[in-house]
Amino acid sequence: MQSTWQGRKGTKRFTTKRYVRANTLIELLLVMALTVTLMIVMTTLYAFVAYRTSDSVSQYNSYRQMDQFFKALEETFNGAKDCSAGTFASNRIYIKCEMPDKGTDRDGDGILDSYLPTSVNKMNQEVYDTGKYVWYYNSDSTGRPGNYGIYWFRAVRSNSSTITDSNIDRKWSYLSPNQPRIYLPANVLFDDSVPRQFRVNVRIFSVYTPREEDQSTLTKQRNGSDLELDRHFFVGNSR
Question: Tens digits of per-residue pLDDT, 139-161?
């Protein structure tokens, strides 16, 4: 603002000039560029955090699935008389365990959790007669033995004959009438080369992971480091 004074015949007069500064085009472009840069940085940061969080959830859920699978195997191996690995005619793998006939089913799942000897021989050794046979195998959602799939099932049969889908232990194998419980899109290897021992290796490469609430619905594809667990079990270790 600028003020001037003019005098004429003893009078005074002031005039005022105002200057209003406007934004230039360069300044507007600079603000726009900074705004766009900030948005790009924030979007990239959000995507990175979202990916890392999702990947961590993916690994957590995958490890939960493997842990459930291993716990069931361990319980079966520990109480078994004998276990063996094999393949169906379709080259799908399975584990079959011969279980004792006497014991206690503490959790009501139809499988004995602790075992008692049937008798004692003349050498004062405990004798366990054969009861049921417990199988673990992978299949599709139907659970039909020999089918290719990424779900794992448990079956129980009263003799050593090959199982059918009518032998499925549905309480253990399913979360709901048609939704399998154990989802393992992985390479699963069984090694029974050492007597009375079993090595089980589970390795997941790129995995669709289950949601935590139902552990079955496919939600995302994970492309990252492999997830691998390797466990050794001893047959009849609890007896």
Answer: 998 999 989 888 999 999 999 99
221 has which bridge partners?
208
> Rounded to whole angstroms, how far apart are CA atoms 105 and 118?
16
pLDDT at 191 over 60: yes
* Residue 224: DSSP 8-state: E
Q: pTM of the predicted model, to two decimals?
A: 0.69
Residues 63 and 228: their CA atoms lie apart, in Å, by: 9
Q: Are 137 and 93 in contact (CB under 8 A)?
A: yes
d(CA 112, CA 35): 66
Query: Quick one: which of 202, 81, 79 has its CA closest to 130?
Result: 81
Handedness of CA 143, 144, 145, 146 (dihedral sign): negative
